[in-house]
What we know:
The protein has one domain. The protein has one helix spanning 115-125, and strands at residues 17-19, 22-25, 38-41, 47-49, 58-61, 64-68, 71-72, 85-90, 97-102, 129-132, 142-144, 150-152, 157-158, 161-162. The chain is built from one helix and 14 strands.
Amino acid sequence: MDYYPHVGDSVTPNGIAASKGKIYSKDVITEDFDPIPTLYISRGNELVFNHPPSKIFNAISGDRMLIVGGQILEEIKADSKLQPRTAIGINKNGRWLYLVVVDGRQPFYSEGATYQELAQILLDLGANDAMALDGGGSSVMTVLGEDGKPSILNSPIDQYIPGRERAVANHLGISLK
Length: 177
């Protein structure tokens, strides 16, 4: 089965995408359009949601906010669909970053999570603010293996094929020194 985009196809992420001071995608905000939730990461690794600094260094936009000020948002509680999900959160002082990936669409392994369940996981971990990133087949968590190659930590699913990754326009990479 063929799917798009193909490797090498040009794609544009939704919202704002920036890395090391270079902005790759910028959200267009109109009077009738709510801005897409975005995590901004400064040069000094300070984390903040939805309040862009005067100079954007790193940024990644998401799907919707899940938690604001330590409270799960009411509007996410109505969605009861179980899906693969990915989310990112920060604690109250912005010192801790939480990354959560929930597998789904795989009977007898994982059906997925609702936005409410995803938010509760992040709240239980200590997140004060959190947003959902793209989910579904985009829900993949990878680390650099000892062999220097990427190693997938979860079981992604795309086109109902377990273990298959969906092509995506953006990702968040973290490196530690």
